[in-house]
Predict the 3D structure of the following.
Amino acid sequence: MHITETLPGDRRARLAFGLDWRAYPLKGARAERRRYADDFGATHHVEYRVGDELIGGFAAPDTAEVQGARLYSGAARIAQHARVKSRVAALVLLQDEEQVHLVFIVRGAVRNDEVLTVEAARVRRLDIEQECLRLNLSLTTLGAGQSVGDVDEAFTAAALLTDRKAGRIGKLPVHVPAAVPLIVIVATVIFGVVKVMDAFAPPPPPPKREPTLQERYAKVVNQTFAHAEPRASALAPALLAKLGSNETVLAGWLFDHAECGSSGYCTITYRREGGSFAGFDTVADAGMRPVRFDPDGLHLTMHGPGVPAVATVSLKDVKDWPGEQALIDMVQTPPQRLSVKSYEIDSHGYSVKLDPPKPLLAVPPAFARTAHGKAFPMIRQGAWKIEGFRWQAPLLARLPPSMTLESLTVELWLKDQVGIHFTAKGKYYVPD
């Protein structure tokens, strides 16, 4: 759950996003509320009414984080806003620096209440748009922010301050079953028996020991590499080759840019150069659909190629990973000039940025010495960004096997430097 800073005009009021939501009938709401609270391990909840149903959101905020604060659900306020509750389906995107608050509402009920990165929000938006097309729901997109993309209507965070009492999150009432008095009587009778049995019971087991630093480090390493991450050297050139097969000009529309993640499908954006929506819709084949025509009349977004499955960065290859300085020498060419060597056709317009790597787990130096070279060698993680042109794809294929690809953006440059320009981002790992 994400909690915002205090709201203007009330130093104790704060908005919360990321609750778990369910709908249940008014009749028998108490039992349903308790059931969902137990399922989610919730300590707090918020409710609002839609017809004959209650829409409930459940959360378990950290006590220290919310001490002395009044929490209000951002999703509940959005759902009850006059511009939203009249819609069949509404998607609201509110950007806050590098995060996007995403709330999806269908017929007044909250379906999605999330705080995502800009890239993840774009993927979730496309999934929601496709779901609405499949279910024949009329979707209205509202929001504000430089990176949220085009919206049908502007909707800023200031709209959430209109009704300052809406969406109040409170503590769940303590559940006291009707049979408690009888249980107390029975427990009193049993208590004497238990005391006698305790004399014959074996001693309790020793308290569970705290995990050692080695065990904690092993857990962090396993969690880091639990999900397969594609190698940048394999996926980046493959995506550039796939995107290269798309038409640059199609029915009066010019390729603008494409965005790809590490899985799923890419999305491709064209801009109008004399064409029409109807003309593009006529030539679009099944592999391009769904096609989304932007309200500005100048852009459209279509379904791009699928992200292929490639080799992944694996912990079992750690012995082949270069150290930090060796990795820098491999991916950054200080002269940054054209070379006559066949495998060094890089440099012109090709730039590499490496953020300093940080340990997966902060541990004392003594532990680093004992773990180095054994079952769990010390590993550090950093972020990287590479920009260049499509003809420099051979350089990407030479990246070390410890570099993952998280996103790839491809653009058509027509001004100072002309060509297909790419921006690739991901993570890299180096052993100590």
Observations:
- The chain is about 25% helix and 30% strand.
- The longest helix spans residues 180-200.
- The chain has two domains: 2-171, 212-432.
